[in-house]
Amino acid sequence: MGDAVNERLKGYARDNRRSPTEPEIRLWRHLSGSRLGGLKFRRQYVIRSRILDFFCASVALGVEIDGITQDPVADRLSDSAMAREGVAIFRFSNADVMQNMEGVLTTILAAARARPKRWAATVEPPHPNPSPEGEGLA
Predict the structure, then answer these.
(1) What pLDDT, on a 0 to 100 scale, did the predictor assign at position 123?
(2) Chain-centre distance of CA 58, in angstroms?
(3) CB under 8 Å to 56, separation ≥6 — which residues?
(4) Which of 28, 43, 68, 131 is the most exposed place for a label (fewest CB within 10 A)?
C-alpha cells in the first residue's frame, strides 16, 4: 500500500476517533485502559488497507461494530483476507453492543484467550534495573 493511501487512512481513522458512534463509545469504556482481561486495545486502528474499530495487537484480534450501512459480502471477503494473515475479526451489531454488552464482552474475552499470543516470551527477560556487579553482597 502506498504512503499516500496509508496517510489518507490514518486521517480517516483520526476523524473516526474524534467522532465515534454511540456503540463505539460504550464498548470503548470497557476496552480502554486494559479493562477487559488486561488486554490492550486500540481504537480506529489502521491495518493493511482497513480501519478496524478496535484492535488488540498482542493476540491479533480485531473487533468491528457494524451499523446498517455495512456490506456483508465485502466484509466476509475482507475478514477472510485478514484471517489469512493471522488476524481474527469479530463482528457485532450496534444492537448487540447497545442491548447485550455483557455478551459482547464475554465473546471478545473468550476469543482473545483462545488466540495465541503474538509475542510470547520464550525466555525470561532480564531484570530492567540490574544492580552493578557485587553491589549489596556481604
Answers:
(1) 45
(2) 8
(3) 39, 40, 41, 42, 62, 63, 112
(4) 68
